[in-house]
Design goal:
136 residues, alpha+beta, three-stranded antiparallel sheet, two-stranded antiparallel sheet, 5 strands, globular
């Protein structure tokens, strides 16, 4: 998605500092996030929250792309899950799924879908997850 304006101003958008791997605190606006996705909360292609995403562009995206695309592209220089991208950017998972899916259709990121057994996770995996949750 190309940007309509390229002023890069701080108008209630989220931010991310790729040098330190920390979200930059800015006043967020959920209205803006849903405006960026055109009100969509369902991605154009099925996208699991544990799917891994990597950038497919050799250089940083220019100002002709919306800020959210540039941030996601920078984040995905290191392979990250959709859920991790959502958390680092501080935006709802549905919005992140739509943005990442749109970026994939434009060839800006690669999505590495998890291999899921048709029978689902086994009892041993579920018990390890439960045990890990008990330790929190």
């Amino acid at each position: 998605m190309r940007a309509d304006n390229s002023d890069g101003g701080q108008d209630g958008r989220f931010g991310y500092d790729p040098e330190y791997g920390e979200p930059v605190e800015e006043e967020s606006s959920l209205v803006r996030m849903y405006a960026v996705t055109g009100g969509r909360i369902v991605p154009s292609a099925k996208l699991a929250m544990e799917a891994m995403v990597s950038t497919s562009t050799p250089a940083q995206l220019g100002l002709s792309y919306i800020r959210e695309y540039r941030l996601i592209s920078d984040l995905c220089r290191r392979v990250r899950s959709v859920a991790e991208i959502s958390a680092l950017l501080g935006v709802p998972l549905g919005v992140t799924r739509v943005l990442v899916s749109d970026m994939e259709s434009e060839g800006l990121v690669r999505i590495h879908h998890p291999k899921v057994d048709a029978a689902g996770p086994g009892p041993d995996l579920l018990e390890r997850v439960l045990s890990g949750l008990d330790q929190i």
